Every structure is written in structure tokens, then in C-alpha cells.
Amino acid sequence: MLKVKGKAQEIYDGIRELPIVSPHGHCEPIWFAENAVFPNPAELLVVPDHYVFRMLFSQGIPLEKLGVGVPEDQRNPREIFSLLAQNWHLFLGTPSQLWMEYVLEQTFQIDVPLNSETSDRLYDIISERLSDEDFRPRALFDAFNIEVLATTDPATNNLSHHQKIANSGWAGRVIPTFRPDDILDPNSPHFETELQKLQKETDTDTGNFSGFLDALRLRRAFFKDMGATATDHATETVQTHWLDNPEALFARITSGKATVAERDMFYGHMLVEMAQMSTEDGLVMQIHGGSRRNTNQRVFEDYGRDKGADIPTSTNWVSGLEPLLNRVGNSEAFHCIVFTLDESTYARELAPMAGHWPCLKIGPPWWFHDSPNGIARYFDNVVETAGYQNLAGFNDDTRAFLSIPARHDLWRRCVALHLAQQIDRGYFGISDAEWLAKDLAVDAAKRAYNL
Amino acid sequence: MLKVKGKAQEIYDGIRELPIVSPHGHCEPIWFAENAVFPNPAELLVVPDHYVFRMLFSQGIPLEKLGVGVPEDQRNPREIFSLLAQNWHLFLGTPSQLWMEYVLEQTFQIDVPLNSETSDRLYDIISERLSDEDFRPRALFDAFNIEVLATTDPATNNLSHHQKIANSGWAGRVIPTFRPDDILDPNSPHFETELQKLQKETDTDTGNFSGFLDALRLRRAFFKDMGATATDHATETVQTHWLDNPEALFARITSGKATVAERDMFYGHMLVEMAQMSTEDGLVMQIHGGSRRNTNQRVFEDYGRDKGADIPTSTNWVSGLEPLLNRVGNSEAFHCIVFTLDESTYARELAPMAGHWPCLKIGPPWWFHDSPNGIARYFDNVVETAGYQNLAGFNDDTRAFLSIPARHDLWRRCVALHLAQQIDRGYFGISDAEWLAKDLAVDAAKRAYNL
Amino acid sequence: MLKVKGKAQEIYDGIRELPIVSPHGHCEPIWFAENAVFPNPAELLVVPDHYVFRMLFSQGIPLEKLGVGVPEDQRNPREIFSLLAQNWHLFLGTPSQLWMEYVLEQTFQIDVPLNSETSDRLYDIISERLSDEDFRPRALFDAFNIEVLATTDPATNNLSHHQKIANSGWAGRVIPTFRPDDILDPNSPHFETELQKLQKETDTDTGNFSGFLDALRLRRAFFKDMGATATDHATETVQTHWLDNPEALFARITSGKATVAERDMFYGHMLVEMAQMSTEDGLVMQIHGGSRRNTNQRVFEDYGRDKGADIPTSTNWVSGLEPLLNRVGNSEAFHCIVFTLDESTYARELAPMAGHWPCLKIGPPWWFHDSPNGIARYFDNVVETAGYQNLAGFNDDTRAFLSIPARHDLWRRCVALHLAQQIDRGYFGISDAEWLAKDLAVDAAKRAYNL
Predict the structure, then answer these.
(1) Looking at residue A368, what is its pLDDT?
(2) Do A94 and C422 touch (CB under 8 A)?
(3) CA C323, CA C318: separation in Å to the nearest integer?
């Protein structure tokens, strides 16, 4: 557990019990729709968490042994959990260590350390807890004091799970997020099937560009009706464009004649179209830029995406966003949150940009940087130029539901440490620090996402 | 106010009262030539300061409300000042906070905080002070204990204000700096008019390349006669070239036939020509690299340049300066100070380069990085490879005259904090620290700029 | 001397006396083969050390005055040493300061500071010590408690010095490292002569690609027989490729018809061939990426390579290594250690990559970053994502034999400071810290290099 002392303890105590606002992440809505029991410790803590299995894989443990790429009924969850326990020392110094310790200690109330000797005992304890009613998804959601949780959903998704949650009478607020990458990026392997799905789902002719835009507007409206307040866009290289004649390029693409570069160009154009639609419907635009996906071809072919081989690359936000910002960046109705994996852009690009453009806010440290040092570097690099009010608070961005309280707790500890340091340096006193702490823990996120 | 304690306090106390040497900045020479009363608090502290109004703009306050783009007689200075006061919390954690607090507390002797309730009161106090003889530019210059202040002036400027200062009998040393960007960069919108102005001002035929060079030499000599010791060059991407036949390209440019890329190439060549002239006349060459100017087109069209939308971009100093350095870098007569906005180049490029080339010194943290963290990162990243003697000391680079003592004071505090940390780590003792502190506060700048 | 206190002292005390494992560096094997007396203080501490003379050069001292480019019998070693002493203040705050102080205090038992007044006295003391039997290379090797020292040797080298050491009966373990840059990179000025040498040395026809590969395999086997456990590869820009038809390109190259770009491409291909051979023979592949060599042409022409003008450039490890990793990166037999000079790649690229690929380990901070801040930044940036077990421990990478204990000592102090901080932050307790300290000081390096 990251230690907080003195003034940092004081600040942390003022925010530790605040509700959790989770405006961006990758939990499965089906968990809350079905409210089924989580199967076992391995399914919960290892198999779906690429933070965890990538580290084990990096030390030579085959993914199959961790249940990845193995049908659920052929996995041996006790052995998978045991591999984690035996190799727990690999995680020393990583945020995964801190998150997992929090989950074991705070959520499962376990007070013995995880290692090869305690593995079976912990497996049994956790298994037993999971069978308890208190450990079903909705009960945990309530126990975690989650005020709102946003999922991330393909643009063509029918949101049936969200509908089921809404119809269930349960008061938990689980909202969708409009994620149209596969339907906007013609280089996606799913582009064609998504296009057909879009046509079917909206009953709109997506064979021409204008119909394509109409169908997207309909889907955005549907998501908004279902509670969405934001869209989300991933892009390896941040590049936006405004094309004079997107109709012609769309035709080339749908007829299969476009080059890879042209399809990239089209995706860049569609990001600007999305920004324009945001000015119409008010959905906040999120851009997650700079992850090169699936860099290990064999792992991708054998196990699919999200298997720990996505690697950040250097990113140019200034030229990349320029076409988009110069088209919609001065609109009062436009709100955009940017997430980077290239920390060299914090002070150089994003803080100056967010310190100018009214539409821009900087998202919290993302992915590999969602850690004590990563968060410290974030504050050190962005605040002096962007201030605090151009930040978007925190989001956990996780598919590991159990780790949500752990991640928010770590953020709050880091916020407290940062603000205590600012007091020590002479920037402001405890009352400003307490206000900023609450803002960074909850309020800034609600404001940034219109929640 | 940034706190200094223990050894840092001791070091700071040894340098806090030293005279201010300001070898690079953007004060207007007319202030000291005319010595007129500063009109009002808003004109002094908000309207001309893009650090201040960009932050307010980023939170949705229109530039017009801050007096930007509004004729002076149509501005309501009390309301402008009030907007700053109401939104003062936006600046928490920024160097603007520290500078403004210094100005209010130290220069105006105000001991109440700035906020919406105190706004009118502070406005009145400041207004009254400004009407005092002690707050005229020359009196402040003397009170600030400024030993020398360099302005930055277009190459074709007649320096009449500097002449007037020289003739006035006032002892203040205000010297010009030769800034020829608009006459060297054919992509500048002012290139053609500047070329005509150059011809007229020097009575030299600038229609051919050799005449163009002669005219530039004459202007440099004139600036030097007027006290200049340096030139200054801004460039978005650091690129220098040595052309075999610049005459031909100059002809293509003046006849309007050159492409954008060719004009860029020409500017890169002219930087090398400037470096060569520096070896002849001894003017120190400053290169400010890596700012992408006017990225918000609408703001640029409506309000002009320097409106808070200049954003840093990543910079390659190694290949960018290679042609220049390999032409003049081994000349004992050449001295060049480089300023970067890309902090990733501190340890990777600039410190190794300055640790080799006799001609190179690293300028202080610039613009967005002229802040406690920015300065700490600078020392942490450059000293281990470049040492202290390859640094150029400090310059405030400001157009906010009132903030000059605040900025030098902040630098001195940061220097003291850094050196106290070096003592704690075991690098050296207090006597070396005291020597280095004085050097970094004053002497290094005088040496680097031949002052 | 970098100070360690409290828990850091405790951790440091546990590792300070451990043997030195030096798996990568540039000591001359002839020193240990001949075991001759080191000639004088200047030859030992100034003339061969580009860390030292580059700093003096950067302040205007000509290289000739430092003995560089001057025949040994025409150098005045006392004057050279005196120039260092007079200018010793230039090194304040640099790791060179710490290393040199360690050498003077610990190795030479000198307790007066180095400056212009003490210069002659220190020169005499050191000279006297050097004439002592205890200061011959083998005696120092033993006194330094070096368990193993790897040299770096051209691929075509006959390793006669290593042979002589092996035959001498002396127990010191000095092993070669296979460094084939000049024979793999057709842009090297030595490529053709190396190719002829390779043919002669292996008695294999290197006129065709298949013979070329065979000859390389023979050389690798020879190095391995002589004790090598690793290869080493330097590359300015990290670029690897897999060519469909390398035979044809090899033919174009040997017939002198290939372009610079094609030759670069060939080098990129050969790096993958080397990786493949590593899977066959088990030699660990080292890649040192991102140094632009000999950027000062005049210095290169007048004095040759390694004269302080090699400057780091920004590096893209993700795309650069992709072809290599996708060809051999999933092989259990492949082990690769990467070294970067672009610190922005620590958290962005290398830590995520090493946290996924089983074959990859991150080498210690290299060259300009082998310093207290550089090491602190390294741990801060890589550990959270890569953990500790994906690091390759330490290597001193020096050609300054005397500085080896100083460099390992500095690393161990920095390790202790880092781990003590981790304890304070709450990551782990003293027993984990002590285990990690030993690992980072010695064991990780032995494991990474199969020593």
C-alpha cells in the first residue's frame, strides 16, 4: 500500500470514502445484467487481466498455462492461480502489486501474503467468498460505492445488457460509451462486417457517405438515449484530416480500391466528423492515442487482441489534432479529452494545448502510466502549464472489476501526496489542497464527462 | 512563494539581492524612452501577458472580455482585472501564480489575497501606485536593480527608442538584440516588405544575394553600435543547411517561384550565414527552436500572433544543427546559445552537444518550462553531462516588465534548492554551492552574452 | 561520493563488497595479456577517457593539449594532468567527478582535493603508485575483486590476447564479446577490408551470401570457444528488416552498386540473421541503439572516432525491432539486451516491450545516463511496467579500467537509494530490498549474460 503521512494523510482522509466515479473503463455490462457469481479466483484475477499475464509471459510462462487461449472448461484455475502465487515476486515495484494487495487485503480481507506456500489457502478463501451473495457483481458495485460506471461498447452494439440493467430495478448506474473504431477505420479487419451491421441496426443505406453519416448519428442518439455521455476513439498515430470530398474516398473504400494510406486518411477525416457530431449532440469525445496494437504477430494469431503486446509509440498531438481543432476547437459545444502514452508530450504538447483550447482537457495517466511514478510525473509535467482545471480527473480504464476500488484508492493517495508536496513547496495551503483533492478525486471527472 | 529552507535558504540569501542581468526578453524600449506612466492594472498585468489570458481563455472566457483585440479606449480595465481576480484559482500550481503573488506582495506591497471580493480594492491600490513617480518605467528599472536589459528588435528597426534612451542621460542600460526572422525566412508573411525596408534602411541593393548579405552585415553593425551583443532566431523546426548556390535560390525566392520547401531550405542556409557573420562581428547567436506558432487559425485571424496558441513540438537538435556546427562550430569566435521547448532533448541531445562543442551553451528553461518543476528538470537533466559551465545562466524572456524581479527571484530560489540538494547528495560543499549560485544568478549570463 | 543514509546505508552495506561482474565494456585485453605497468597518470586518467577530455574541449581546451592526436612520446603527461587539475571545477555535478574522486581516494588513497595547487603532488603520488607491482593490471583486477570482465572485440579479431591470458595460468576471467558491426554494416568504411579479413581468418569464400553467413557462424563459434557469451551491436537508428532475397542485395553490395539506403537495409537484415544465429549458438545479443557517431567532422578527420562527439538521437524501438522480434522473439533460445540513449523510450517503449517479450531484457542506463540522476530516472521509468526481473543488472561499459570499481560502487549506491525509497513508499520491506539489491548488483547480470 502506498504510504501517506502527515499532510498527505490528512488530505487523503478527506477523500478516501468519496464515491467512485468511473467514466471510462472496460467492464462487461453482462456482469451487472446477469449478476452471476464470478466463477473462480483465476477467472477473476488472472485470465482476463493483461497487466498480470503479460508479466508472467515475459518471464517465459506460456499463455496457455495461464488459461489464455484455452476454453474455460479446460482450464485448471487452481494451477493458474498457483502460477501467479509462485511468481508474485515478479510484480514487486509495479502498480499490479499494489492493486492486487488492495484486492486481497481490503476486498477479500486476507491478511497473509501471496506466495507459493499460501496459494492453495488463498485460492480456497477467495473461492468461498465468491460464492457469497455479497460478492456478486451488483453487490460489489454497491459495496464499492460506485456512483456511475461507464462501459465501452462497439458502435453497432444493441446495448441489450444495459437495457436489461435499466429494466431490472437495480439502482446502479451503468452507462455505455460509443466506441466506433471498427466502423470508422477502414483498415480494421472488422470494417466491412461492421458496416453491414450498422446498416441493419439503423435501417439506413450505408452504401453512400451521407447515409453512413446518418446511420452514425442514429447510433450516437441511441447510445445517448441509453445514458451515454461520451464517445471513445483509439488511434495508433494521432492524425486527423478534413477532406474536401470524403464521398469519393468512401466510395473507393467500399469498393475495395483504396490504399492503406487512403484508408488511414479516411479514418482521420471521420474523427473530425465525430468531433462535429459532438458539437451537435453534446457527447464528450475521448481520444486514446499512441498504442501500437498486437505487435507480437504469433501471439495475435494464436490468442487474439489485448494479450499484452500493445506497445506505446511516440505521438505528435500538435500536428495530429490541428485539422480537428481548427474545424471544431473553437465551438463552445465541443469537449474533448485526450489520453497519451507518450509522456514526453505532457509538458511539451498537451499541457500547452489544454492551457489554450477551451474544448480540451487532459485525461489522467493511462495504462502503463497509471502508477505512483506515472501519476507523479503527470502532475509534475502538466499542472504548471495547464493548471488543475484543465484536467479531467481520474478514470480507471480497467477490465478488472475487482481492481476498481484499488485503482481509485491509489489515485487518491497519489493526489494527496502531490498536493501535500505543493503545500510544502509554498504553492497553497491545506484548504486549497482539500478542495483540489475532492475535485481530482470525483468532481473534475463528473464535470468533464457531464455526469 | 516557493519556499527555501536550511542550506537552500543560506544559498538563496547570498544571491537574492544581486543585480538583475536580463540578456534576453521582450520589453518595449519605448517604455524607457518615453518613461510614461503605466495606464492601469489591466494594461499592466493582463492584456499584454499571454501566460495570463491564455489560461482564462482555456476556461471559456472570450479574449475580448480580457481586452485582447479591443482598442485600448474601448476596454474596461476594472472589469478585465476583475475577471482575473474571480478566476485566480485557475492559476494554482502555475508559475504565473508565483510571479503574480510576488508582484502584488513585493512590488505593490499588497498583503491581501487576490479574489473576487478583493478585486476592486486591489485595482484601486495598484492604480494609485501606478500614478506615483516611483512606478514609472525608469524608476522601476532602477528599483529592480537591473544592471542590463536586452530588448528584442526586428532587423530593420531604426532603434530610435534606444537612441532616445542613450541621449536621455538616464544611466539605465537597455540594449537591443538583432532579430532578423522576418527578413531571413521567406515563408514569413512579412518577408517582402522587410526586404524592401532593408534595402531602404541600408541604401543597399537587396535584389541580389550578395547585396542582401551586405545589407544584413550593415544592420548587424548598426545594432552592435547601439549596444547589441547578440542576435536571436526563432525556428519551428530546427533545420540548418549549407547551399552550394544560394544566389540562385535567392533569385527564385525574390521572383516568387520558390516552393515552401525551398524557402524553408533558404532559411536554414541563412541561419548558417548568420553564424558565419557572428564569427566576424562577435555577436552571440541565440536559437529558440521548436515552437509551432499560431496553431489556432481563428484566434490568429481575429487577434494576431502571440495569443497563447503557440505550442511546442518535438525537435531534433542533432541533425538540425549539424550543417551549421560543421561549418562554424569549431571557430573560437563563434558563440551560440540554444533554447528548447522539447525537454526530452535536454539529456539526450543538448547536454551531450554542449559537453562537446566549444561554441555551444544551453539557454535556461524557456517559456512553458520556466517554472519550479521545469527548472528542476533542467538541472537534473543537463548538469550531469554538460556540467554547470556550459549553461548560459538565466534570462527572463518576458514582455511583462513587472514580472522581471519575480522571475529572477524564482530562478534564484530554484537554483538554491537545486544546489542544496547537490550538497545533501554529496557532490560538493557550501562554498562551491555559493560560487555556483552566483554564477547561475548573474555571472554566467554576463559571460555567455559578453556583457 | 554519493551519500547513502539510514535504510539506504543498510542496503548498500550488504552489497558494497560483492564481487564485480562486468559483462560489457571496452577494456583492452592486452593489458591483462602483457600485464605491463601503466605508463603515467595522464595516460591512465585523461588521454583515453572521452568523458574527461570532451568536457575540457567544450571549454575551449584544444585536444592536442590533452594529448589526443599526439604521439605518445611527444605528450607531456604532467602538463596534461595539470590541465585536468586546473579545470577540475568544470566537472562539478557530473558522474566523472564522483568516479575520479573514488579513484583518487579509494584506489590511490589520496586525501587531498584535485586542483591546480595539488596537481604536481598528486601526479607524483600516482606515478609512484603506478610503478608498484600492486598497480599492474592483473593485480588491480584481483584487488578490484572482478569475477569476470568482458571485452569488446571485432568479429575478425584473432583474440590472441585472450589466448595469452588463458595460457598464462593467471586465474582472472577475461572473456571476449563478438562485435561484428564493421563486417555487417556495408556503410562502415571498414566493410571491405573486414570482409577480406573474414575470408582469410575463416578460410571460407565470403564472395557469396551463404559463404558470408558460414564465415560469421565460424567466427561466433570461435568467440564462444574462447569464452564469449554475448555479441554486441551498435546502430545509429534502430532498424531491422527481413529481406526475401538477401543474396541479391549482398551481390549488389560487394560489387559496389548498392545505394546507402540499400546498405542500411542490409545491415537491418543482418541484425536479424545475428538474432537467428543466437537462437542456434546461445550467444546473448546486445543492441546499443541511438548514438550518432562522429558528429564533428573536423574532429573526426583530425583525431578519429570516439573523441566525444557522438551524440544520442531519438529512437523508435517499437517499429525498429518489430521485424527482428517477429522472426525470433518467441524463441525460447533467444536472449536480447537493449540499451538506449533516448530516455523517453524507457517508460514508453522498452519497459512495455520487456514486460511482454520473453527474450528481451533492458540494459542498465548507458553512457550519458550512467549517473545518479540517470540511474534514478531509469528505475523510476522502467520498474513500474517491467518489474525488476526484466532488467539486465549493471555493466560499466568503460574503457577506463581504473574507474570500474568506482562505477559499480556508484551503481550500488544508487540501487540502495532507490530501494530505500521503495521501502519508504510502502512497496516492500527490507528483506525484499536486500534480495533485489544483490540481484541488481551481481546476479541479474550473471543471469542475463549466462555467466
Answers:
(1) 95
(2) no
(3) 10
Cβ separation C314–B344 shorter than 8 A: yes
Kindly list the residues from chain A whose CB atom is less than 8 angstroms away from the CB atom of residue B312. 318, 348-349, 352
At residue B73, what are phi and psi to the nearest 5 degrees? -80, -10
| Chain B CA closest to residue A435 | B89
Q: Which residues pair with C178 in a beta bridge?
A: C153, C231
Contact status of B325 with chain C (Cβ, < 8 Å): yes
The helix (H) or strand (E) run that includes residue B52 is: helix B50-58
Parallel/antiparallel/unpaired status of strands C20-22 and A336-340? unpaired
Is the distance from CB of C24 to CB of C232 less than 8 angstroms? Answer: yes
Q: Grid cell 560560487 — which residue? A: B435
Give the residue from C267, C232, C287, C275 showing the smallest Cα distance to C26.
C232
* pLDDT for residue C24: 98
Q: What is the DSSP letter of C234?
A: E
CB A415 within 8 A of CB A437: yes
Average pLDDT taken over every residue of chain A:
97
Please tell me the distance from the alpha carbon of residue A353 to that of residue B310, in angstroms, as a whole number. 9
Q: Indicate the SS3 state at residue B361.
A: strand
pLDDT tens for C146-164 read 999 999 999 999 999 999 9
HSE toward the beta carbon, residue C356, CA cutoff 13 A: 27
Q: pLDDT tens for residues C384-429?
A: 999 999 999 999 999 999 999 999 999 999 999 999 999 999 999 9
B313 in reach of chain A (CB within 8 A): yes
Cell, residue C188: 562502415
pLDDT digits (tens, 9 = 90+) for A388-415: 999 999 999 999 999 999 999 999 999 9
Over residues C26-81, the pLDDT tens digits come to 999 999 999 999 999 999 999 989 999 999 999 999 999 999 999 999 999 999 99
Residues 6+ away with beta carbon under 8 Å from C257: none
pLDDT bracket for residue A76 (50, 70, 90) = very high
ipTM, 2 decimals? Answer: 0.97
Matching CATH number, C38-134, of 1.10.3720.10, 1.10.2020.10, 2.30.130.60, 3.40.50.2300: 1.10.2020.10
Check: CB of residue A12 under 8 Å from CB of residue A416: yes
Q: Residue C309 contacts by C-beta under 8 Å, 6 or more apart in sequence?
A: B356, C54, C294, C295, C296, C299, C300
Q: Give the pairing type, strands B178-179 and B153-154.
A: parallel
Q: What is the pLDDT of residues B303-349, one digit of tens each?
A: 999 999 999 999 999 999 999 999 999 999 999 999 999 999 999 99
Helix (H/G/I), strand (E/B), else coil: A284: strand
Determine contact: C429 vs chain A, CB below 8 A.
no
Chain center to CA of B384 = 25
CATH of B7-37+135-448, one of 3.40.50.2000, 1.10.287.600, 3.20.20.140, 3.90.180.10: 3.20.20.140
Q: Convert the pLDDT of each residue in A194-213 to its tens digit.
A: 999 999 999 999 999 999 99
Q: How far is it, in rounded angstroms, from Cα B212 to Cα B218?
A: 10
Host H or E run for residue A244:
none
Mean pLDDT of B238-263: 96
* CA separation for the pair A294, A302 (Å, rounded): 11
Instruction: Outline which parts of chain B fall under CATH 1.10.2020.10.
Output: 38-134
Of C349, C356, C422, the CB nearest to A93: C422
**Å between A299 CA and nearest CA of chain C:** 9
